[in-house]
Amino acid sequence: MSQPNNANPIQPNERMLELDVLRGFAIFGILIVNMQFFSTAFQYLSRVRANMWTEEGDKLAKLLIDSFASGNFYTMFSFLFGIGMIIFLDRARAKGIRAVPLFLRRVTILLLIGLVHALLIWYGDILVEYAVLSFFLILFARAKPRLVLASAFFFLLLRPVLTYFGAYQKITVPLYSASGLGNQLCDVNGLLDRANAAYQYGTYGDQVGQRLVDFVYQYGTFWALFPVVFAMFLFGVYAAKKRIFHDVEGNIKLIRLVWLGSLIVALLTTFFKSDLTAVNTISFKYVYSQWFLSLRNPAICFFYVTSIIQLLRLPALRAASLPIATVGRMALSNYLASSLICTTLFYSFGFGLFNKVGPGTGLLISLLIYPLLVVFSILWLRHFRYGPVEWIWRTLTYGKLQSMRLPASKATSTAAE
């Protein structure tokens, strides 16, 4: 697929600080949430409702993670992905490039990166899901903002309806059968035992085989999150089409309104969560209760987003946020680096801490890893335009070798900042 010679990726001086800070913040939250999946076979533990950790510190850490992080950062990352798509397409069109084919090439490469990540590093990959859904997201590229917003709410509220009509079983069971793993994927206790053996004691080859099983199992159970992810994509598309991040000051009233509304919804859904979760799934009342609960994670996400945007209006905090922004500038590299670091810490080929670290220690490890990502990002971006994986992604997307190293004068001035 040929592109004009002026098809170049976005340059560092064209970036929006707010978006980079939000990406850096999202990487931190995702690391905290994923730590329980790195350190244990949590995808199966949660299904058999096994609780390995009974100490008060672990209980408190789990409560904090569930209350303030779980479900709130993949939604933020999805929201930012939707914004990124429109920025990418607008910039390509401004240069006279066939934007849609270029975008489809971009997400195809993302799909390949995600598959490598999922099968060779860590099964809990999100990139495959993003890439697959992007082939549908492109249909909204030229849609009117009102249609995009209405569609976002439609997909956000779709999951309870699918559950009520038994779509879970109708999709999951055939998917498992088609995978050739069939009954094995329905024996959660057996899957738990095999995952523990592979990651705690097995060879790297054993773990690759187990990751394939885990990957299929995950997409057989987590498909129900697809409507939520797609809804957050669309909220991001809406924000980009309305150019909210292009003109924060001009949209500050809307940002404050979303901040207040999301706070109210988050508080209400959290307060009534236990009562609404107990509603019988065969009752149509379940749909109403789940519609209400479906707003919780996006509401917390938007509360975080709008809070950060408003805080960044303060010059002192804007300057203090620059290290987090560097993490966001190379979010893909840092996301994958987190997987490499954590699998090395927990799996048998590394330090072998699998099943030996509870939520409390896991949270502490997250707080230690993130500063390493910050330092790595700062040092890397003093000398290079993009993160290492971003450079590969861009080079393959545009079909030509991208300029990677900063000019000596620019690298020196960046180091002095």
TrEMBL record:
Keywords: Membrane, Transmembrane, Transmembrane helix. The keyword Transmembrane applies. The chain crosses the membrane at residues 21-42, 63-89, 109-140, 147-167, 221-240, 252-272, 292-314, 335-354, 360-381. InterPro entries: Bact_Transport_Assoc, DUF418. It comes from Tumebacillus lipolyticus. Residues 239-400 form the DUF418 domain. This is DUF418 domain-containing protein. It comes from the Bacteria.
